[in-house]
Records
---
Amino acid sequence: MKKKIIVTGCCGYVGTELCKLLIKNDYEVLGIDTCWYGNSLKENNNFKLLKLDIRNIEDISFLGYEAVVHLANIANDPAVELKPDLSWEVNVLSSKLLIEKSIKDKVSKFIYASSGSVYGLKDELNVTEELSLVPISVYNKTKMISERVLLSYVDKININILRPATVCGYSDKMRLDLSVNMLTFQALKNKKINVFGGSQIRPNVHILDMINAYLLFLKEDVSENIFNIGFENISILDIAKKIKSKVDTVINITDSNDPRSYRLNSDKIMSVGFKKNYDIDFAIDELIQSYNDGKIKESDDLYAIKKLRKLVENGKVY
Ligand SMILES: NC(=O)c1ccc[n+]([C@@H]2O[C@H](COP(=O)([O-])OP(=O)(O)OC[C@H]3O[C@@H](n4cnc5c(N)ncnc54)[C@H](O)[C@@H]3O)[C@@H](O)[C@H]2O)c1
């Protein structure tokens, strides 16, 4: 019998590719998403989409599902700051609703997408899972508090929390507000990359590695709860230089008010069997190819803040 999985945020950048991978691996998936940024997944025998706000799941049954992968969130700093109350409800209170529903309906595993940004500013060369969390934005704070809410149920359900770096690479539901994706798109479209500051060090993870990590935690029962997943800790300027070596572009550096800088250490996830197969260069190459093939076109749907602002202004999201 096929294993049945619930994926919240299934229509987003990561969720779209994760659902495709799960279906390929013979899982039966129920996706829950408001489709705020659109949807490129098609329903079939192994994939059903419930167009629903995770704040309103009271009447939904999770009976018969083996695991929940919880990705639905307001997923970056500016989008969260647009309407902080909405973000606290979606990013934190809904985690509580989802895990309580999972426990009540006997789901055995809950996997949560936190963020590597929960560490805040860190000078340490190895930011391991043991270091303190000093989140500096509201988005980062919602992730930290949501982790703590979920961990308070650890005696009742298996919980794995991933703290991803900035994800990069092609998805059928692209995001162009993520560093590698954004800078590559700027180079291709405008022949100019705008780098703010540039010296900030950030870790990265390719979307195919990211979804393989979720698959690993679905397949294996891992008793440890929290795992970083981020590699290639490099500066934004060095990402721009990598792009410049492949695309005819200039790099324009201006001052930045974004101090976030940290390096993730991901030894722990490697120690439970995760293998990294992709890198930033692979992401840039596939983004160039996808752009040239006409698969990446400018649209508000590709930027969380632009789309959410419109939805909020039109009273569609409250
Ligand atoms: N992409 C990254 O670089 C990155 C890095 C670290 C952590 N994460 C986390 O991973 C997860 C997935 O990221 P992503 O890049 O795919 O984000 P995304 O913004 O592309 O997708 C989020 C999805 O959640 C849905 N959603 C939002 N609020 C909802 C609600 N109330 N009810 C139902 N659906 C709702 C949206 O419609 C969207 O389809 C998020 O939790 C994000 O915070 C992402």
---
Amino acid sequence: MRDVFLYNTASREVEKLEPLSPPRVSYYSCGPTVYNHVHVGNLRTYVFTDTVRRVLEYAGYDVLHVMNITDVGHMTTDQDEGADKMQVAAERERKSPWEVAEHYTRLFLADVDALNVQRPHVLCRATDHIREMLDLTARLVERGCAYVTPSGVYFDTTAMPDYGKLARLNLSGQEDGARVEPHPDKRHPRDFALWKLDQPTHAMQWDSPWGRGYPGWHIECSAMAMRFLGETIDLHSGGIDHIPVHHENEIAQSECATGKTFAKVWMHAGFLTIGDTKISKSLGNFFTLSDLAGKGFDPLSFRYFCYTAKYRQPLNFTDQALRAAQKTLQGIRNFVRYAPESALSGEEPFVAPLREQFAAAICHDLNMPQAVAVVLEMIREANRTREPRVLEALFDFDRVLGLGLREVRSETTALPPTIRSRVAEREEARVQRDFARSDALRDEVLAEGWILEDTPEGVRVRPREREES
Ligand SMILES: [Zn+2]
């Protein structure tokens, strides 16, 4: 196993990952609330989550990845006030919350599949784990960390001496005044519901020792993480906006219940922004992966685009930046598609140091901009020296990058070698902006009965049909 260094939000430092029982790494990442389409800002977080797992696996760890689907109890404010987002969506769409959840879960999975985001080993729905949530809530009530009121069972944040440690909240300050108006049953504005009661019009309800109701959002993640990964997990991640409320509350309720550290390492992905504004549903500036497809973008260009900034930094989304990412990805794919068969046997001497650079980059807190720079350097070097034996290294890197390079290669293995080498040469001519040469090569290929098409996925070659001659 190779050492992996990760920025831990809890310590605010880059630390060497020290799993409890290596090579196993237990990893929990917060999943979507399935009340609407996910937007590209959310998708950046899921690409990040997948990259974390791929990097750890590349480094030799055996990752057990659990992600939740929130299908009940996430209120319209993260601070636990307002209405359940699922209930609001059900009324909006005149469906049951179960149908809404089913519909948007399917769309979510289609999006992440298109981005080559690997499915977690365990994908757990909140509504399938109500029992675990009730058990954890009961434990907190027994330990005096939660109190029962007519409107719900609330976690008592003053019962946890270091409440606020993840976000380093200033609890003595005035900041609570700026928050939404807390429910009058709460003893402290930051207290939050573990179990909601007294909402007879809510469509999803379960019996509990305190009456019929439904779980709060935060308890869901704690209960499911512990159910599948144990009371202390190695790694927990989510979006940066989860730090001050959701993750703070996950820590509080888990650690008060068990007396143990909940997660050893916390990782958070930065926002995707438009201009200087974050993309969010509440701001109405969001768009989806299908919107991008409608503009001629390949989903994997978006994945590649995510690698153009470090995961913790904000990434500014523009059509121009996405187009640039798509163009670079096309270049990589075209190289992979049309490199000669000999590119698969052996390895050029310049590859070994680049392999080392690639591994060093990803294992130092997922430096993906550096990792893709190594990929491009390798292709440049292969073109410059006309020594193409780098494909195996590219396929190896793609275990982390997830750009589907092996699939791209296998699409073209049916092409005659002479055609493939001319297409590769034309790609190189285009990179050198030698358009006369590039046109000449296209004509040569056409004369042999093959048509070149420049598509969002890169150059495609197909046999010429009779009627096209
Ligand atoms: Zn969560």
